[in-house]
Design goal:
There is one protein chain. This protein folds into three domains: 2-132, Butyryl-Coa Dehydrogenase, subunit A, domain 1; 136-235, Butyryl-CoA Dehydrogenase, subunit A, domain 2 (Beta Barrel), CATH 2.40.110; 241-387, Up-down Bundle (Butyryl-CoA Dehydrogenase, subunit A, domain 3), CATH 1.20.140. Helices cover 50% and strands 16% of the residues. The protein is built from eleven helices and ten strands. It has helices at 18-34, 37-45, 54-63, 81-94, 100-114, 117-128, 241-277, 289-318, 323-349, 360-372, 377-387; strands at residues 134-137, 152-156, 159-170, 177-185, 191-200, 206-210, 219-230, 234-235, 279-280, 283-284. Strands 1, 2, 3, 4, 5, 6, 7 and 8 form an eight-stranded mixed sheet that branches. Helix 1 (18-34) runs parallel beside helix 4, helix 5 (100-114) packs antiparallel against helix 6 and helix 9 (323-349) packs antiparallel against helix 10 (360-372). It is globular.
Length: 390
């Protein structure tokens, strides 16, 4: 992966190499066999506290997915994000729930970017071999606002004290460690900017409460009350912690866009099949020209999303300087289509599309969460315009 992350390297290829293609093919086969949509329905109906099946996650670890994007020097496989993006796309097609985004993409990338050698040695092996899980505690309000921190980290002797509250911590329930983003207050109450702290969830003052969203996945609300940390718990190896956080978020946003792309592809395919099967006036309704036009427009927009996602994934691996722009472009398009494709699917299915017994509803619920996770279309269009100087 070292050659894929050369700073300033603007050359990008959207084509998967042999190793990435093998990862993509194996992911689709594995998830279709081990994590069909029926599994997500069972997890929802039983209110599984982790939001995923631990046995499935262990098999994912054995397949090497958590190691895919870590460099070989850290014990990873260095496959790259184009390969991991194909995994997320396959996850979207079957609604597979595994804590890959939280532990690997968000927290793993922050450890690589902002952790020193001792911190990487302490936590990365556990993330790669699946023995430990991490989650990022970031947002503090109902909408994604990564710069709006009210959680404070105050100096106390040689360590720190954290106080605050975090909402919508992805895969927070059951995680051993959290990376908490906080505003650092130095001597004389001086604001020193962003700080990233690794917090043991078993520490006194740490409270995690399950938050059930529409997709029945694992989300948590975190309360920190006088949580005491040693200096070694702060990730401050990066010269710019805020930039390290933004880069990790962009990689996660692209992975979410890849998952959304897989989800809308599956919804689209199921809808087209239904149009071919449903008969009215003695002919399949898919023969009606008005419906064909609606489907054709959706297909064209989905192809544009696929191109945006592939460009953003290639930008990560190439170390492209415009990753932030491409990530927001992909996430904005993905959020738009999470709403548009699922809404059209319900309309084209008719009344059956809104019944709980029909799997389409599970896709709609996951799409609504993906639509808003780490920034909705409005957030990313505004960010794109700001990055372009408008």
């Amino acid at each position: 992966m070292a050659q894929n992350r050369k700073d300033g390297d603007k050359g990008m290829s959207f084509l998967l190499n042999d190793e990435q293609r093998q990862l993509s093919d194996s992911a689709r086969e594995f998830l279709q066999a081990r994590s069909p949509v029926s599994l997500q329905r069972r997890l929802r109906d039983t209110q599984a506290p982790l939001g995923y099946e631990p046995a499935l996650w262990q098999q994912v670890v054995e397949l090497g997915w958590p190691a895919a994007v870590f460099p070989e020097s850290e014990g990873g496989l260095a496959v790259g994000y184009q390969g991991l993006g194909a995994v997320f796309e396959a996850m979207g097609q079957t609604l597979a729930a595994v804590p890959l985004l939280s532990s690997v993409v968000l927290c793993g990338e922050l450890l690589l970017a902002a952790g020193d050698a001792a911190q990487r040695q302490r936590w990365l092996p556990g993330l790669i071999n699946g023995e430990e899980r991490m989650a990022l505690a970031l947002d503090e309000q109902g909408r994604h606002h990564p710069a709006g921190f009210r959680t404070l980290a105050r100096r106390q002797g040689d360590g720190w004290v954290l106080d605050g509250e975090k909402w919508f911590v992805i895969d927070g329930i059951g995680a051993r460690w959290l990376i908490v983003a906080a505003r650092v207050i130095g001597p004389q109450k001086a604001d020193e900017g962003l700080g990233l702290f690794v917090v043991d969830t078993a520490l006194p003052g740490v409270t995690l409460q399950a938050t059930r969203l529409a997709d029945s996945r694992n989300h948590a609300r975190l309360t920190l009350s006088g949580v005491q940390l040693a200096q070694a718990q702060r990730l401050d190896a990066a010269s710019d912690g805020a930039q390290a956080l933004e880069t990790a978020l962009d990689r996660a946003r692209v992975c979410l866009a890849a998952e959304a792309s897989g989800l809308v592809q599956e919804v689209f395919a199921r809808t087209v099949s239904y149009l071919k099967e449903r008969v009215q006036f003695d002919v399949p309704i898919g023969s009606f020209q008005a419906l064909q036009h609606r489907v054709a427009r959706l297909y064209a927009e989905m192809e544009m999303l696929t191109s945006c996602v592939r460009a953003a994934l290639a930008a990560i691996d190439a170390g492209h300087p415009e990753l932030a722009l491409l990530a927001s472009l992909a996430k904005a398009r993905a959020s738009d289509l999470c709403e548009k494709v699922t809404n059209e699917a319900i309309q084209l299915h008719g009344g059956i599309g809104v019944t709980d017994e029909f799997d389409l509803g599970l896709f709609v619920k996951r799409a609504r969460v993906l639509q808003h996770c780490l920034g909705d279309a409005v957030f990313h269009r505004d960010r794109y315009a700001t990055l372009k100087g408008f």
